[in-house]
């Protein structure tokens, strides 16, 4: 993110974060426009020279203004619901650059995708192929299909966000792939065009990607030999980002890393290219996190300090309903003071106001000492942040603002009590 201290005041691009607090209050999601556009271009450039489409995975952050900016820059879209498809179309993504994934597509969602003429459905089971064929027949359309194959590869990330093992619900097991391709080819109104894989999220090393690319390449060769007209491979998303030491600055503690820092997405993609580039297929990607995660932060205010037994708590005004990742995955987000006033560090639990013990943003965290009314920035919160926000405890959903240089635009106003109670 375009995040730096200027005179000990944290700025997003050219905007001091405390000014955003003065104007919009907290909790507040803050995004840097140039950060997510640069992330998108770095990924897209990694595929320069081969026919490709970089589809942004809307599930990471589906704010319409962010979508519009990415669509304008030429991104495609990876959607998983009628809602995401409607947002993608409204944002201006070309239908022929939209893929529809998801293990549980409903009939009305399939119909929507067919009527809009999307590029293809990433199909996850034989029964789904059958339904797709029936709906396409009814509408007198051809449904383009990529089969999502489950490669049984260990991605090495959190078990909740690994998707490519045989005992996960996703995809068609590699051993059944040939049968599924035959079924797809035999069903009316289907046009088999691709192979799809996605092995998980927050993957930081090249090896699982290379293994997956090899598996995809041999599947494409086998299926072509069997007469399938495979024209594209979609190797999914999953490129990891840096959560620890996202911001380094004198006065901030160095965060202990348990694994080597993530390879850049362009390197992870680059590692697959030798395998993919000569397949004679267009390469499609579906990154979400790597585009928006480090382009966003959650701004929150310290409400109280308290000590219970041996534990010291900072109670802040953002909770698990605003940012669920720490509670759900024990995910780590660096938290830094907006005004860096002291070199003195302390160990605290940063917790929210929600009535759940699991409502925390950080536990046993070494941080510069702060006091009530100070502002904190929870970093790398642009992906799987606001999209998972809820009204739990009837708390209002936070506002979102977009920074572009020294300009700020509200891209989602804070929910109001009237809206909540209507
Ligand atoms: N394609 C498919 C089929 C997916 O299931 C996903 C993510 C993506 C692409 C995008 O993956 P990415 O590039 O963002 O890693 N809520 C979790 C992450 C769940 C990911 C679900 N699928 C988190 O907060 O870490």
Question: What characteristics describe this protein?
Answer:
8-stranded parallel β-barrel, 9-stranded mixed sheet, 21 strands, single chain, 422 residues
Structure description:
The protein is an alpha/beta fold and 422 residues long. 28% of the residues lie in helices and 26% in strands. It has twelve helices and 21 strands. The strands form three sheets. Strands 4, 14, 15, 16, 17, 18, 19, 20 and 21 form a nine-stranded mixed sheet that branches. Strands 5-6-7-8-9-11-12-13 form an eight-stranded parallel beta barrel, surrounded by six helices. A three-stranded antiparallel sheet has the order 1-2-3. It is elongated, with a radius of gyration of 22 Å. 49% of the residues are buried. The model has no long low-confidence stretch (mean pLDDT 96). The structure holds ligand LLP. The site of ligand LLP has 22 residues, from helix 10.
Briefly, what is this?
With 422 residues, the chain is of the alpha/beta class. It contains 12 helices and 21 strands.
Question: Count of DSSP E strands?
Answer: 21
* Weakly predicted, low-confidence segments: none
Secondary-structure-based class equals: alpha/beta
State the helical fraction: 25-40%
Our count of helices gives 12
- Roughly how many Å apart are the termini? 37 Å
List each distinct ligand once.
ligand LLP
Mean pLDDT: 96
Shape: elongated
Beta content: 25-35%
- CA gyration radius, whole angstroms: 22 Å
For the biggest sheet, the summary is: 9 strands, mixed
